[in-house]
Amino acid sequence: MPQNMIHVLGGYQSDFAVNWHRAELGFDALFSEAIDGVLGSSGLGLGDIEVIHVGNAFGELFTGQSQLGAMPATVAPTLVGVPSSRHEAACASGSMAVLGAMTDLESGRYDCALVIGAELEKTVSGDIGARTLGAAAWVGHEAGDVDYVWPHMFASLADEYDRRYGLDDTYLRAIGELNFGNARTNPLAQTRGWSLTPESFADDDQHNPPVSGRLRRQDCSQMTDGASAVVLVSERLLERRPDLRARPMATITGWGHRTAGLPLAQKLRASADDVYVLPHVRQTVADALGRAGLAGIEQIDGAEVHDCFSMTEYMIIDHLGITPPGESWKAIEGGDIERGRRIPVNPSGGLMGVGHPVGASGVRMLFDGYKQVTEQADGYQVPGARRFITLNIGGSATTVASFVVESSPATN
């Protein structure tokens, strides 16, 4: 196997239903739990960690705490002296941390990296939280006169799809119903115990009230506290530690990372003559598939993607290549994205069902992909899954990252 292959040796996710602020717990407790959990999963000790990468988007704004790259060494003094960096790219912060760790390992500088994505958002009311998250837009230049920046932005994306291709809102509601339904069997999902009825996914102003434009309550992901972590290791470490090959392990075989400008309107103007509404998102997916040596999405067994809103997933379905551009509705209507069908999308429940602690989501997607291809996904396992793709975005698809994760030969 090539020396620069990067393997996922273990991972961890906190229970996203926990309100850490209400429990009077902070980042120190959250990081401590994540570190203990991921090391227990990987079979490694603190002394094996050579470098740390932390994904966090809004620590300063929600808690007043910055410099979260130092939190691992704060709660685990054995890590004092281990280099650590914090990465911020809005909702793609966790994926940037993964990419940073991969670069360190691929360069040969280190052989074992700890990646933690974490966010605490329940420190403020929902209204204040929504305004706080607006910092990931182009502040002072877009959406300045609305209370809910991101519902407004993705409702605008829905309107653009409608203008170019036509859009029946029924399919947005169906995405919400599918993802909340998937979350019911995920033991770590924020919404697993929620009481929802068919009316919760209808155009029903009482049970599913409007939020912005076409988007209603169950078209939206949640304000969430939580963390996810993975341990990434090089092939060099596995050659020195052959005992680790007996553990559940996956390999990151492909990745993509592209960035556009901040404003959504700029992105939409740039794509006016393109078949894809957000061509750089499509390019990110193509990069990941190409680096993995795959011809297309049909060689993928499932996807964990960034459904911050139902419209986001609607866009992602065609940008993944599951359908031609503008025809995502066909995959929804035909059941192609359901568990056990052609290409399950968000079998975990996604951001809408699992929860969306912003800095953690990219890491959580990778961890869920790892669980799927190592047959550890418990109540939401995709039968026979050996290859998963993730797609994580920050802002209005300003920062985009994708990973292909496959079962390693030792786990086949």
Explain what this protein looks like in three dimensions:
The protein is of the alpha/beta class. It is 34% helix and 17% strand. The chain has helices at residues 27-42, 59-63, 71-75, 93-106, 126-133, 149-164, 169-183, 235-240, 264-270, 279-291, 310-320, 328-333, 350-354, 361-373, and strands at residues 6-13, 51-55, 84-87, 112-119, 210-212, 215-216, 226-234, 250-259, 302-305, 387-394, 399-407. The strands form two sheets. Strands 3-2-4-7-1-8-11-10-9 form a nine-stranded mixed β-sheet. The protein has a two-stranded antiparallel sheet with strand order 5-6. The chain is globular, with a radius of gyration of 20 Å. 57% of the residues are buried. The model has no long low-confidence stretch (mean pLDDT 96).
What level of helicity do the residues show? 25-40%
Q: What are the low-pLDDT stretches, counting only 5+ consecutive residues below 50?
A: none
- Span between N and C termini? 15 Å
- As laid out across the biggest beta sheet, the strand order is 3-2-4-7-1-8-11-10-9
Shape type = globular
Number of helices: 14
Computed CA radius of gyration, to the nearest angstrom? 20 Å
**Average pLDDT reading:** 96
Order of helices and strands: EHEHHEHEHHHEEEHEHHEHHHHEE
* Protein structure class: alpha/beta
Number of strands: 11
Query: In percent terms, what proportion of residues is strand?
Result: 15-25%
The biggest beta sheet is recorded as:
9 strands, mixed
